[in-house]
## 1
Amino acid sequence: MAKKKGSIEVITGPMFSGKTEELIRRVARAEIAKIPYALFKPMFDTRYSENEIVSHDNKILSAKPVMNAKEILGFSIDADIIGIDEAQFFNQELIDTCVKLANGGVRVIVAGLDMDYLSKPFQPIPNIIGVADQVTKLKAICVECGEDAGFTHRINKKEEKQLMLGEKNSYEPLCRTCFGKYVKM
């Protein structure tokens, strides 16, 4: 029997571009095909649910909350597909975890922001992109002009830390031109 071929797929883009929705779509296809899978999310991301990933348009799949990327290895023994949502909230060990899984024949699908609210690379996503087999960069719709939006603008200017959970009351998608009105690039 041929060895399973592992891979790493990255779904990225700004907030409200459909990253989680696309992750759910890919995993749901595996569910239809009866391919064993496991979904993971950062434990502290409880915006919509503690043990589900939920897209902004309310698509839902069960997920295992984990404290760190190494935990994913222990919970992935029987899975042929691993989905990881909100990957920007993990540290650099996520890269090694993804590579180990893929090298072991697992299809790894990672969804997360590649840039923060200042348009700076949001690790570990850029480094995972470097080892990925496939990258899908999604666009949102600019809330100011209606063009394709590739940037996440933080509305709440008082909070300056990079990691901040939020939704539509905290962030909005903007195109490059509109984003440039608020943030020097």
## 2
Amino acid sequence: AIATPRHVWIVGGMSLFWNCIGATDYTMTQTRNSAWLQGVTPAQLAYLESFPAWAVSAWALGVWGALAGSILLLLRSRLAVTAFAVSLLGLVANLAWRFALSGIDETQVFGGNPYPLAGVIFLIAAALLIYAQRQKAAGVLR
């Protein structure tokens, strides 16, 4: 059996923390937690409520797939690859709604440029998938 490389614990732990943030945001937004949404304008809330079920489902796949991937990575399970792939697909579908299909300019709704953060989230999701694939190929994930 291959010993768990230290970088797996580091990447797994950091990704678990990062993906808990996404899962918290999803949960608090979907449950309309008043403390979480404090400061959200009626126009911003209307935008969030305009998401079709498939885009909300894609968001769910993105965050819960990523969280599962992080846990599975820490457990050294090869299923981390599948979970991170599902997460990336969910993210891409959600971003397609937000930036191409909704017809709504988020810069007008939120007053800031959403593209840099979306890009960072995409890059992290893709990097986690690639990392898990490489660890599986190296025999670290069983």
